[in-house]
Amino acid sequence: MSRQNEDPTREPGTQEDSGGLADKLGLEIHPTVFFVSAGVIIGFVLLSLIFLNQLSAVFAFIQTNIADNAGWFYILCVNLFLGFTVYLLCSRYGRIRLGGPDAKPEFSLWGWFAMLFSAGMGIGLLFFSVAEPIFHYATPPLGDEPQTVEAARSAMNMTFYHWGFHAWGVYALVGLALAFFAFNKGLPLTIRSVFYPILKERIHGPVGNLIDIFAVGATLFGVATSLGLGVQQVNAGLAHLLPVPQNSVVQIVLIALITAMATASVVFGLDKGIRRLSEFNMWVALTLLIFVLLLGPTIFLLNGLVQNIGTYIQRLPEMSFFTEAYTEGTWQRDWTIFYWAWWIAWSPFVGMFIARISFGRTIREFLTGVLFVPVILTFIWLTVFGDTALHEQMYGGGGIVDAVQNNIPIALFVLLERFPLSIITSVLSIVVVITFFVTSSDSGSLVIDIITAGGNTNPPVHQRIFWATLEGVVAAALLLGGGLTALQTASITTGLPFTVVLLLVAVSLHKGLRETYRSDRKLIKPATGHGKRIEAPKRALARGVPRYRPTSRKASKTT
Fold first, then answer.
1. pLDDT class for 258, splitting at 50, 70, 90?
2. pLDDT band at 17 (very low <50, low <70, confident <90, very high)
3. How far apart are CA 153 and CA 311, in angstroms?
4. Of 400, 337, 307, 279, which is closest to residue 141 (Cα–Cα)?
5. Confidence tier at 39 by pLDDT (50, 70, 90)
6. 180, 98 in Cβ contact below 8 A?
């Protein structure tokens, strides 16, 4: 079959072209991306198990060197990503609808928001919502006196900074680029497609393969980091409630059990599996949130939310460019750089997932939803749990600081035991962590499978089961090889090369939007004469550009 007769939206090199081993195994894949990615990751797991004793020292060395030497690069790039998405939100491109002017959203707003929040932040928020504010309160990063009122304000401010607009700016950039080139340009839903304005047909060659392999690696290690944090917290909760030891053996057993649950969710698919689980854990999380809000220091929390948001907005420019240049400390390396690398490593996963569920939204609606709705919910969650912990430490029985410094994963459960029905709320917390674990694993395996299948959005289920299992295996290997340090190092290491990829994503997306806008403006240029109504050609409408109907010369100039 000649290339001219092929489907232009199908990625060359998928199972349709490849034959051979992929056919024998019943796979629908891009062979190079699938086998190289799987081989590298499996090789990492084997080396981790062979050199288990040396791995912890290696992880610590890598983390220190990358964070110390490339920290400024992470800080600068994440600011650029956020600035670029805000520019697009306010730009002339905001009216373009992802999928064309007649495209209808696949999911309701509630379902869309639930999947956005669950996929993007779930496990991390549960892990750090109490631990991070308390940790910064005890060891302030900006020179405040420890365990003072000013330290408390600064702690919440820094926590908001790490979980606010910068994180979702990264996700929004990748998600919008993928959705635009897939739904409006008819390209496969893979990271390589985003580079078409720069690379043209070369996206189908070795350079495109390398981009997708980087994306698979970043996604898998980013998801594995979250799974590792989640299983540590589940283990901590069980140890707090039951005579269960808190060690790597128990955590690996938990990973196996919860990965099996994720596999079951994979079989049910996107709508019945991920969507229903996302909505379920949103309701359970909301119940837990309301419980703490009503039974905790309610007025203090409401006042704190208003002040925290105001302080965050006021100090955002200063925090955004803080690099710890004059103190030469390790705080930023351990916190901000880890977070920025984690968000970047997660961006192919979260970006592709939100692209997949955002068909039919306009660019402005997409960016507004992705930037603001999850951030507002995140700020509410952080205030309720973080400020409640600070209030208990400052004006209540205390002891939260000691618990966090001794064992970070147990922080949430130590706080909940100060409330009535602590056993029930602790069990609910464990349930929420597990369901977030399952949705993250399921969503991550879907995204990796789409990339390795050359953009096929409905690849065979057994391929997703393979990737879901591999995510659990990598998380277990990281926990065995160094615990939290290994998880942080995995994100920082895989996030660094992908940061360069995201810079090129921004350039390519802007180039694609600009070319589309200029082309469509030329196509729908009004004919001579005043007041003549002119219909836009189908080509322009298919790209989501509004009909151009000037009624006067003035309207013609301003449209």
1. confident
2. very low
3. 8
4. 337
5. very high
6. yes
In sequence order, the 6+-apart residues with CB closer than 8 A to the CB of 445 are 262, 266, 464, 465, 467, 468, 471
Cβ atoms of residues 110 and 119 within 8 Å:
no
DSSP symbols for 392-437? HHHHSS--HHHHHHH-GGGHHHHHHTTSTTHHHHHHHHHHHHHHHH
pLDDT band at 10 (very low <50, low <70, confident <90, very high): very low
For 242-255, what is the mean pLDDT? Answer: 86
- Residue 83 neighbours by CB distance under 10 Å: 13
Q: Give CA–CA dist 308/337, Å, rounded.
A: 22
Alpha-carbon span 514 to 534, nearest angstrom: 23
User: What does the H/E/C string look like for 133-167?
Assistant: HHHHHHCCCCCCCCCCHHHHHHHHHHHHHHHCHHH
Q: What is the pLDDT of residues 467-476, one digit of tens each?
A: 888 888 888 8
Q: 64 Cβ partners below 8 Å, 6+ apart?
A: 333
DSSP 194: G
Rg of the chain over Cα atoms, rounded to whole angstroms, equals 24
CA distance 117 to 109: 12
Give the pLDDT band of residue 478 (cuts 50, 70, 90).
confident
Could you tell me which residues come within 8 angstroms of residue 493 by beta carbon, excluding any fewer than 6 positions away?
Answer: 62, 63, 66, 221, 341
The residue with greater pLDDT, 180 or 282, is 180
Residues found in the chain = 559
* 362 φ, ψ (degrees, to nearest 5): -75, 160
Range name among 109-118, 184-193, 483-492, 517-526 with the lowest pLDDT average:
517-526
pLDDT at residue number 271? 54
Other Cβ atoms closer than 10 A to 518: 10
Predicted pLDDT of residue 462: 81
Residue identified by tokens 């996700």 is: 171
Which residues does 203 contact at the CB level (< 8 Å), separation at least 6?
192, 193, 195, 196, 211
pLDDT in tens, 223-246: 787 788 788 888 888 888 888 888
- Among 335, 406, 154, smallest CA distance to 146 is for 154
Whole-angstrom distance, CA of residue 217 vs CA of residue 204: 19
Question: Pick from 337, 257, 288, 286: which is nearest to 68 by CA?
Answer: 337
How far apart, in whole angstroms, are the C-alpha atoms of residue 427 and residue 240?
A: 10
Residue in 218, 208, 76 with CA at minimum distance from that of residue 508: 208
